[in-house]
Amino acid sequence: MFPLFWFKKHIGVILHNSYEQFIIQHTTVLLNLNSIVMSENVFYGKVADHYLEDNETIYHVMKEEIVIYDLDTAKQFLAERLSFAKGKDYAMIFDCTNIKSFNMEAQKFDASDEALEGITFMAVIIKSKIQQLLGNIYMAMQKPKVPTKLFSNKEDCKKWIKKQRIAKAA
Questions:
Q1: Chain-wide mean pLDDT for the chain?
Q2: What is the rounded distance in angstroms from the CA atom of residue 47 to the CA atom of residue 60?
Q3: For the whole model, what pTM was predicted?
Q4: Model confidence over 109-146: pLDDT tens digits?
């Protein structure tokens, strides 16, 4: 949880009678303090932060404290992603550079139709050769149903997604 002074300093929040009700830029938002919506383009969730990059791409960054990606984390991530997407399909950039372990149940879940709902393309940012090896094994075993590729940086993800959109439109 964030201390009250953090909200006042970083968001310009006006506190009302309870810790759960805030006014952000003159819009009343009821909050569960584990997930805070700051604008239409940003969602700070319990397991990840979600950013609308353009009208067709969402950038998801796993929280630093999430180092083990298990089934509960995968389901929470899906709930946050779907809530932020509001029923629209998006390309997904998934930054999982801080994750040290992907549980097998979570991997199977992430390959399911339920978990892939609303994703047009998936670019995954990794940072190590071990993550690359494990990611390639995952893709070979689970065979994602949407075009998926591993990258070492966000810029390459964006270029690949742009190429995928052009190819799909042709």
A1: 81
A2: 10
A3: 0.76
A4: 999 999 999 999 999 999 988 888 888 888 888 888 99
Secondary structure element (H or E) that encloses residue 83, with its range: helix 71-85
Whole-angstrom Cα distance, residue 22 to residue 18?
8
Please state the domain extents for the chain: 1-33, 39-169
Q: How far apart are CA 93 and CA 78, in angstroms?
A: 14
- Per 3-state DSSP, what percentage of the chain is helix, strand, and coil (rounded to 5)? 35, 30, 30
- Contact between residue 140 and residue 108 where contact means Cβ atoms under 8 Å apart: no
- Cα–Cα distance between 144 and 137 in angstroms, integer? 12
Instruction: Please give the CATH architecture assigned to the domain spanning 39-169.
Output: 2-Layer Sandwich (3.30)
Residue 43, both tokens: 């969602």
How far, in Å, CA of 144 to CA of 117, rounded?
12
User: Which one-letter amino acid corresponds to residue 135?
Assistant: G
